[in-house]
Each structure stands twice: as C-alpha cells, then as structure tokens.
Amino acid sequence: MKYKVIVRPEAEDDLKEAFSWYEDKRTGLGYDFLLQVDAGINFIDRNPAIHPTEYKETRKHLIKRFPYKIIYLVEGNKIIVLAVIHGKRSPELIKKRINAI
To answer: Is the pTM of this model over 0.90?
Structure first.
C-alpha cells in the first residue's frame, strides 16, 4: 500500500529548532540531522507498522546517530508525523499533542 506522509506543523517546528541547535554546534551538522530524519521517515513510509503501538496508537522510530525520535500515527493510508523530539523530552509533550488532534 502506498502511504501519504503528513508532517504536522508542530513537528516541522521541532525540526527547525533541532536543525538550528545542531548547525550552531558545527556547520553542516544540522543538515546531517535532517538527512537522518529523512531516512527515518522513508523507513517508516516503507514499514509503517514495524514499530509497536504506544500511547493512543502512536508509534516511535529512533533516529540513527542522533538522540531523537519520530512520533507518528498510522491512519488508513496516512502516516502522520506528530513530533520529532529529543529522547529525553517529557512524554507529556506527546500526550498534549495527541490529545489536541
């Protein structure tokens, strides 16, 4: 089945924030981060059900090389990316985003 990937505006904000942080640490590192996120989203697109469901049917994919995770939902033929957050961030953030949908 072909899936449509939808990145929520909150997740885009997460990406911008992380990109800026990494780019400030070392030029080019922000782009490396975005490449790993892109690879993660492509993996999810090919295998959306590979990760077990968690809180309210969300799933998480750990990004390689960076301590971040992609939180997403699979609804029919859509993959909805809710967040791209640091692994140490509070789970309450995700709960708020899910409950706001």
So the answer is: yes
Count of residues in the chain: 101
Amino acid at site 24: D
Residue 82 near residue 94, CB atoms below 8 Å? yes
The answer to whether the CB of 84 falls within 8 A of the CB of 18 is yes
Q: What is the pLDDT of residues 4-63, one digit of tens each?
A: 999 999 999 999 999 999 999 999 999 999 999 999 999 999 999 999 999 899 999 999
The CATH number that domain 4-99 falls under is 3.30.2310.20
The token pair that represents 32 in the structure block: 């490396």
User: What is the Cα 1 distance to its own chain's centre?
Assistant: 21
Distance, CA of 40 to CA of 44 (rounded, Å): 6
Tell me the residue type at 56. K
